[in-house]
Known about the structure:
Layout: E1 19-30, E2 33-44, E3 48-52, H1 59-66, E4 74-79, E5 82-83, H2 88-94, E6 96-98, H3 111-118, H4 127-132, H5 135-154, H6 170-182, E7 188-192, H7 200-215, E8 219-223, H8 227-233, E9 236-241, E10 244-249, H9 251-256, H10 258-265, H11 284-295
Parallel strand pairs: 3-8, 3-9, 6-7, 7-8
Antiparallel strand pairs: 1-2, 1-4, 4-5, 9-10
Bound molecules: adenosine-5'-triphosphate.
Adenosine-5'-triphosphate binds next to strand 2 and helix 1.
Amino acid sequence: MTTTSTQAPVPAQTPDSVPLLQASGVIMRFGGLTAVQNVSLTVNSGEIVGLIGPNGAGKTTFFNCLTGLYVPTEGTVSYRGTVLPPKPHLVTKAGLARTFQNIRLFANMTVLENVLVGRHTRTREGLLSALIRGPGYHKAEAKSRQRAMELLEFTGLAEKAEHLARNLPYGEQRKLEIARALASEPGLLLLDEPTAGMNPQETRATEELVFAIRDQGIAVLVIEHDMRFIFNLCDRVAVLVQGQLLVEGTSEVVQRDERVIAAYLGEPIAGEGETGEAQPAATSAAASEVASAAEQPAGEQPAPDEAAPADDEQQENDR
Ligand SMILES: Nc1ncnc2c1ncn2[C@@H]1O[C@H](COP(=O)(O)OP(=O)(O)OP(=O)(O)O)[C@@H](O)[C@H]1O
């Protein structure tokens, strides 16, 4: 795998960094439930931004609004200054790629074929060309295969190119999802719980992979429950609670924010508008992760030593 070693994040905004993704006043209602409440978020080029929050906070729903799976009830989502159409394939074409909380591979296709599927938004060959299979088609196919193999090298899966996706271990299936997303040549990659169910070594490898992706010039927005992963990785972290953006700042600031710790611990959030009502608690694992991460001196995050919460604690919400 072509990766950099795990390192301190680069500054969030370098002089030549520009806004890539701009979500403005996004609201998503499902009947009487407001899952996302007026959330605005910007991701700049060169950044790795984390999106965290308790179960049911609205993180995946927000991702779905960003990637065209849901049409937000209100608000706009722009990429490089252009409002994105709420159609997933057009969003991908514009430069956003994503992975899903619940792995979505073509199980009976090979690893290479899965990555080739991810390239379809970047190939011009149409149905007629595919039927005729002339020189243009063969040239385009050869180029796609070469790029797909490069991505498999990059993610450490090249030796398994001809394996069926369903035969890969779980951690490698997640990597393959990332390789397939990268095949659309995105400027921004959205990862929904990329380390869920991974062991500590796989989590560390994923961390290095994300740094390497950023080093390739691709910005990353990542949802994750593993707080050590998030705080070690991200230049900036946004915290959603009950669909609202509670706090946004650098990892150092967010992990010490009492409101964040309170939200994860299920204690009342102090400050304006306080009602004294308890906030929804995250899993106790997430709570202790925040607390223990907050106790670490800046720049001395421990290696991850716990897997993310079990999948059965997560909701099937990539609908
Ligand atoms: N398609 C849908 N229809 C109705 N309600 C939905 C739908 N998708 C999500 N919700 C609800 O919206 C709220 C936010 O869910 P969401 O999955 O976005 O949270 P999350 O922060 O991603 O949670 P988790 O960390 O458990 O994945 C929940 O109450 C959920 O039940």
